[in-house]
């Protein structure tokens, strides 16, 4: 008997009909002879509605109370799901994050899981019950206050619980069939990837593919827990995220590129005329770190000999740009830079593939394809298995399409389809 | 510095504007130099909306899951109230029933409080914070599952917490000005009662006055905790429920009747032709008790010598009548009674007053007033400080009006106004 952990997102349980459909799928998994633990998000727009209520009573609600408020959402969906399963003749019990033993730090709104003690879940499973657990939430170790895990929180709950329970698989149900070689809305020839490595899935997530969140893949990788990303609207196999996607008797060579991801949510800030002295760049990024801003790519030009000054450009989430510019302006006099340039009309296009480690020509081919498509590159950043470029936001589609074709990912070009992200 | 416990019902926090208004009232109490602990119900129609969702996924939802679902309601209102208070510059922290130490038995949907361990609330108060506690909910001692307290649950939470915290007063905020000598919608001359005893308030609650629930007054009486029932829409003094309402330097004689309560929610069942043998009545009421039906009044006629049979009539909540009739039909053959008569077109009118102990003529005066008003009495029941009669449902208004006038309760008749219930 296998232990299957399933996670259903808000779009899968948006209304009573959705909850009933999910209940049937869970019962089918149980009937197939598995123990089942389910993690569920809040119904459809519940979280947005609660946020709206909060805004009506306070422009800046305290984090502790906002977490208390938002966790009502999963409480509703998990209780309803347990009822719907009971109505199909199977015993189900719902558990809050706290009851399920999801122990976090005290950072309200973005708490990190520091321990999982799923005693009550194990007890329920031993008693033959289906356990339904609230995603996205936990309880702080120090203050015993209710916390939320922030973006991608429910996926992280699912993987963390699956790891703590030594589950055989963690199934992440979503509204698409899995991970694709590129966003099908941009590249019609994009194909679903059957298997992919943790490392590649992490790079894809970091580069804008929204199907799986970086945190959840990191967690699964640490515990070597297989993730199966699939649609709650069909019974098709989805994408497996595993240690080595090529183990399964496949003798074929690893493809160079697994997929093309893109991200339109970043902005670019350039600090112009920074005195080229030791410690100036450090001062800038220390200020940004103090403002809790996550920097993505950084480029520093060689200083012009005549002026002894240099320009530093970096990208960051657009949502953080006002805070970043304000923080930088406060240190303008102290550092002595000339001005700040801001551009949120950018996009990031990334090639991801474990195979590029052994293929030195990838960069040249990628840049060549972009040049042929008339796309200008503004910034470049690379890792061992990824190349990212910043381009104009209106050139993202052309760049993704050109890269996808250049690396033979189009559906009519390859036999073994590999990997990508929808970029939603 | 006094410790004030305040309870706000769902109509007081029905929307963002209501929550902000309640927040201002709480802050005003704090600014007046008091420590404040607040118990809050779910917003307006939230509970009904959640029940409706539950019905959509399951016709008979398990009690444990229904409690998990419904407790989301207070979680939302208490977090929003804490935010609204924070927005006024005061520190507030919300606590679930479980966090506030409300320990109950495991009877989902109608749990009883068996202990209150308010350590976290005391800690918050000592830290100068305003504690906001979810009404209506607790956690079971045995299973650690979330429970709800059933009807009148938030009032009971308020009184139980106030007792455990040794509060100076428990203020119950509602949408009327306090307890009245009769329902003002029936008796225009009804007057608000300034002070009333626990015993009288309990009889009023048991006889259909809906302002305070019986359980909550019982609890307050046991701990001699003063309750102040008042409106959240005005700053007027309301009704004080206390041990001895006449202590305050008043030398006037206790009024005979404090108020007239009525109740249209009961039905009457008559079991016709019960063999007049030892144990038959016991068998009937044992069956009803097993079906968890609360019987109110019981009348058994003297058996007719010719037949050796008798009729037994009793009243019960109309909502329970289908279950009761079904249970009785199952034992009809065994007991050998002839038939069951059912009547839900009845009403109960009750005179309540501690003064009637020393005034033997009350019953005669009450029945005389009803006779003059042409009201026929179907059943009678009495306690030391109450007389109740069952009348036709369409005669309730006439009976209440006649009794109110007969005992000099009308506003233009008495100086010291005493006591009653709105009967909502």
What gyration radius of chain A follows from the Cα positions, in whole Å?
23 Å
Task: Tell me what the CATH architecture of the largest domain in chain A is.
Answer: 3-Layer(aba) Sandwich
Counted up, domains of chain A total: 2
Major sheet of chain A: 8 strands, mixed
Question: What structural class do you assign from the helix and strand content of chain A?
Answer: alpha/beta
The total strand number of chain A stands at 20
The pLDDT mean of chain A sits at 90
- Assembly state here? homodimer
Q: Could you walk me through the main structural features you see in this protein, from its secondary elements to its overall organization?
A:
- Chains A, B: ATP binds at residues 7-10, 174-175, 185.
- Chains A, B: Keywords: Amino-acid biosynthesis, ATP-binding, Diaminopimelate biosynthesis, Kinase, Lysine biosynthesis, Nucleotide-binding, Transferase.
- Chains A, B: Its EC number is 2.7.2.4.
- The structure is a homodimer of 424-residue chains.
- Chain A has 424 residues and is of the alpha/beta class.
- Chain A has two domains: 3-174, Carbamate kinase, CATH 3.40.1160.10; 254-424, 2-Layer Sandwich (VC0802-like).
- Helix content of chain A is 32%, strand content 25%.
- In chain A, the strands form four sheets. An eight-stranded mixed beta sheet of chain A has the order 3-6-2-1-9-11-12-10, with helices on both faces. Chain A has a four-stranded mixed beta sheet with strand order 5-4-7-8. A four-stranded antiparallel beta sheet of chain A has the order 13-18-20-19, with helices on both faces.
- The longest helix of chain A is centred in the first third of the chain and has 16 residues, at 16-31.
- The two termini of chain A are 36 Å apart.
- Chains A and B meet through helix 1, helix 2, helix 3, helix 4 and strand 3 of A and helix 1, helix 2, helix 3, helix 4 and strand 3 of B.
